[in-house]
Amino acid sequence: MSNPTLAPSPRQENTPWWRIPQVVFIPVLLLCGVLATSTMVVISSMDQDPVLDKEVYERERRAALALEGQAKVEALMAVQPAMQGRNHAASPVVPLEK
Question: Strand, coil or helix: what is 73?
Fold first, then answer.
């Protein structure tokens, strides 16, 4: 068995860096990351949820507690906090605080 020796491929010394695909890949990848990050920041800052006012919530809750029957249940379901609403989304009864 003979082992042929592999000769290195001929290298061109005067090739500019932007003509080598492996070298161009790195700045393009970084620019894509910057563009994606900037896009996410713009999208997330455009449609922010408003901060709820606690006084308005308490006023609406007192008005809901003053109602009777099914109207009271529907009004309480409309003003319940998000965590409580998410945990009791399938239950028809609104838990009342004592």
Answer: helix
